[in-house]
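Researcher: Here's the sequence for the chain we discussed earlier.
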Amino acid sequence: MASSGTRRAATEPGSYRLDVAVADMYADLRVTPLLRRLPAHTRGLLSTVAGSISVVDPEQRSYAKIAETGVRSQLGRSFPLDEGATGRALSLGRPVVIARPGAAWRGRRQGNDTGR
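Model: Thanks. This is the structure I predict for it:
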């Protein structure tokens, strides 16, 4: 369950407070709760609608979604390194901004997608 600081950071644009986020992150340092809260605080800091954390397995050439918030994106599943927004971010070596979050972006880069 998210703390009140996490909910405020994720739902009220402009009200994000870093001190509240830091206190919330340190409140419970177990890995699973920490990974659940981290994307919500990142959303608050960056004023985004969604966020996720993936773990890369270079030997299998894949990544697994281990935490997310804002948009459901097949949490727990593994994908090839060249697939989806996470694959795009890995290939570019930087974060990817999806200009139209409501638009489905599946598979490899297509058409006029800038991958910004």
